[in-house]
Design a protein that fits this description.
single chain, alpha/beta, Rossmann fold, Alpha-Beta Plaits, four-stranded antiparallel sheet, 11 helices, 14 strands, globular
Length: 311
């Protein structure tokens, strides 16, 4: 049985004057899938989501969301999706419960159903006991949960989350992803944009967008397997100085900070290891550890962007 497609995008393009923000992007999202939209700031992620939500018309290309055409049926799409934008659209002088009452009215929920759904949504995101607190008094991670509650209030089958955990602490981010998993388990399709590599690992499939173009797509495992070079993990003292030295070595394709060390990409691992030891020793930089490792998603991201930039 062929999985049902919740979102279909074909050659979607958006120009702002002479600037092309999204350049012929194509992908499909299956029903019940957690689909990641990965890329640096300014890559075109938010513009793509706004076109899919019916908030922005494409310059060319086509797409459908929940079976509705993004150009001709944008109003119908809005009834079948939840949208959590980068900047939470919450009213800080209202309580958590009052915010949901407002958004429930916008969605057209009958009063009795709205009261029922507001309580259910607040319980689902762990805010029921704080429903009468002013939104401005909630910590950022809790406001994030309230924004999610407002997006799922009308029980949409498709949820768009645009950089939903930007600026919150790691524990709040992890808790938020537990909520995303629980929604997906109930059959909700989730499209989430992020520039956090650890979050991208949580997605069923990903697309990588760079300078408006889609440059790769697949599962996290697929993308990591596509890294052509070997990866060497190096843990030197004087990290910044070591990075500059290593980047200049002819045996090294790319080097980047990874945790408290460096990940170095090379097609000549043995030569690169010897060259790094020699170059660092010459500058009196000690090495705490050095060894070959499996590519991370961040390694794949750097490699794919490097190749896209050379094309």
């Amino acid at each position: 049985m062929t999985p049902e497609k919740a979102i279909i995008v074909e050659n979607l393009t958006r120009d702002f004057g002479k600037f092309r923000a999204v350049d012929r992007v194509s992908f499909e999202v299956l029903k019940g899938e957690i689909f990641g939209f990965l890329g640096p700031n300014g890559a075109g992620k938010s513009t793509t989501i706004r076109m899919l939500n019916g908030l922005l018309l494409p310059t060319s290309g086509s797409g459908s969301v929940a079976g509705y055409d993004i150009v001709r049926e944008s109003e119908a799409i809005k009834q079948h999706i939840g949208y959590m934008s980068q900047r939470f659209s919450l009213y800080e002088d209202l309580t958590a419960e009052e915010n949901l009452t407002f958004f429930g009215g916008v969605y057209g929920l009958p009063p009795a159903r709205l009261r029922e759904r507001a309580e259910e949504a607040l319980r689902q995101v762990g805010l029921l006991e704080r429903r009468r607190e002013l939104t401005r008094n909630l910590a950022l991670g809790l406001r994030q949960r309230l924004a999610l509650a407002s997006a799922i209030l009308h029980e949409p089958p498709i949820l768009f989350l645009d950089e939903p955990t930007s600026g919150v602490d790691p524990i709040s981010r992890r808790n938020f992803w537990d909520l995303i998993y629980s929604l997906a388990d109930k059959g909700v399709t989730v499209l989430v944009t992020t520039h956090y590599m650890d979050e991208a690992e949580f997605c069923d499939r990903l697309v990588l967008i760079y300078q408006g173009r889609l440059i790769a797509q697949g599962t996290p495992r697929d993308l990591k397997a596509a890294v052509p070079e070997e990866i060497i993990a190096v843990f030197p003292e004087r990290l910044g100085e070591a990075l500059e030295l290593i980047r200049k070595l002819p045996q090294v394709s790319e080097a980047a900070v990874f945790g408290d060390g460096l990940h170095v990409a090379t097609s000549k691992a043995a030569e690169a290891e010897a060259a790094m030891k020699e170059a660092l020793a010459a500058q009196g930089i000690a090495i705490r550890g050095l060894g070959r490792v499996e590519p991370s998603l961040e390694d794949a991201f750097i490699s794919l962007i490097e190749r896209a930039g050379n094309n």
